């Protein structure tokens, strides 16, 4: 029996003015918050290395550290982008464009992965997210990293739905850039790749399996080669140390539990220290258990609706036609879940051996790329049989809590001392001090 992609019928969606208007409102709201909170960019110790490497690339054609040694601690894509912008104003524009692009891409993915009613709220929820605003204020790599992650998920879904080679090539190119922007891209690719392999292996023909393996291998190749260069060619000193014990792992799990919990609930800053760490860690584990996208028969609505018009256009899928578009949708949701779990678990584990990513400030920064996927998974896991009035009330409270917090964080970010105007060689390091611990 052939497993080659078979034609299926996909409905041509009619224009929906409401979702279009909500996307516009969400985009304008995000840009307004960004313009208010980020009149100027700020920096930390990491920013100093990024900016200096960008400066030396423009001046000498080489990425160098402050001490004149080859740049090696972080991947090279972000300082290369900084060098291309040429000024702090250009970097600010880059961050704003990346945040807007992320919102549009995650909003589009929400329309594909969620029932239509829940997808309507997604642009507003994304626009009111604190993590994007926080990382957009500082000269950090997370804004572009989030954009690449959203683009990767969108292109991957297009390949799963169409089996067209150009989508696979695009997914591979974007996947290759992910770990060259942030090393955490390797964690996202690992988690998502495992989910894709486990979920699709027995449904793909031999050619499809080899293509998927080739895609995942090439996607991680750039990040792995950079690590080899840093460790063995440049011989960078190790940033790791003997393990600090499992207490540090519990503390880091608690940090991520608090950060992700505060995305969903109106938790005060004092709650992190006022609740035992094991409870935050259990809460983190429980959240991921609840968010797991259980396989169940889909009521095919919205983007997944069967054809209802005689002019519905033909489409292909990477899987047998009996699976339908809902199988690709389910598979991508599982990949998003696995990527989020892998990133949090691996970064928390790394804090046992390294100083980075420890503490709630770093936790919100490192987890910022997960805000879009977590919101989508929460909306996907929303009980379908819950009374409509209850669901509307809870979603309204969620929006209010996000709006209240993002307003306070925007005010705090606006007061952070800016980088010196016209300076492109790096700031003196000073603390972040806002975000996860801010009121």
TrEMBL record:
Spans through the membrane: 18-38, 80-108, 120-153, 173-198, 210-229, 335-354, 366-383, 389-407
Gene source species: Hymenobacter negativus
Keyword Membrane: yes
Keywords: Membrane, Transmembrane, Transmembrane helix
Protein name from the UniProt record: Glycosyltransferase RgtA/B/C/D-like domain-containing protein
């Amino acid at each position: 029996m052939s497993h080659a992609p078979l034609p299926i019928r996909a409905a041509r969606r009619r224009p929906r003015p409401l979702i279009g208007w909500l996307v516009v409102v969400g985009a304008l709201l995000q840009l307004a918050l960004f313009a208010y909170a980020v009149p100027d960019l700020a920096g930390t110790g990491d920013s100093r290395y990024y900016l200096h490497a960008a400066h030396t690339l423009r001046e000498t054609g080489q990425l160098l550290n402050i001490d004149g040694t080859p740049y090696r601690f972080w991947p090279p894509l972000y300082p290369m982008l900084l060098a291309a912008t040429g000024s702090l104003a250009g970097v600010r524009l880059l961050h704003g464009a990346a945040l807007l692009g992320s919102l549009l891409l995650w909003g589009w993915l929400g329309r594909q992965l969620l029932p239509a009613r829940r997808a309507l709220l997604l642009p507003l929820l994304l626009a009111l997210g604190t993590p994007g605003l926080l990382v957009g204020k500082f000269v950090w790599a997370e804004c572009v990293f989030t954009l690449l992650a959203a683009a990767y998920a969108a292109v991957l879904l297009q390949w799963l739905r169409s089996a067209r080679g150009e989508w696979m090539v695009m997914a591979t190119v974007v996947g290759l850039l992910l770990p060259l922007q942030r090393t955490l891209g390797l964690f996202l690719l690992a988690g998502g790749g495992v989910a894709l392999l486990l979920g699709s292996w027995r449904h793909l023909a031999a050619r499809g399996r080899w293509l998927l393996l080739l895609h995942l291998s090439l996607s991680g190749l750039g990040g792995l080669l950079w690590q080899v260069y840093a460790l063995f060619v440049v011989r960078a000193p190790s940033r790791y140390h003997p393990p600090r014990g499992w207490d540090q792992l519990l503390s880091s799990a608690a940090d991520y539990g608090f950060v992700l919990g505060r995305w969903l609930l109106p938790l005060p800053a004092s709650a992190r220290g006022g609740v035992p760490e094991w409870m935050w860690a259990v809460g983190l584990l429980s959240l991921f258990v609840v968010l797991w996208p259980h396989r169940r028969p889909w009521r095919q609505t919205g983007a997944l609706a069967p054809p209802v018009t005689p002019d519905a256009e033909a489409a292909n899928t990477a899987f047998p036609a009996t699976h339908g578009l809902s199988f690709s949708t389910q598979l991508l949701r599982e990949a998003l879940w696995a990527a989020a779990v892998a990133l949090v678990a691996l970064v928390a584990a790394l804090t046992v051996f390294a100083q980075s990513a420890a503490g709630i400030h770093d936790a919100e920064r490192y987890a910022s790329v997960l805000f879009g996927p977590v919101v989508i998974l929460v909306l996907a896991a929303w009980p379908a049989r819950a009374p409509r009035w209850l669901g509307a009330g809870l979603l309204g409270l969620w929006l209010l809590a996000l709006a209240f917090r993002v307003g306070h964080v925007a005010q705090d970010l606006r007061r952070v001392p800016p980088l010196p105007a016209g300076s492109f060689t790096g700031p003196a390091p000073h603390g972040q001090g806002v975000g996860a611990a801010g009121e």
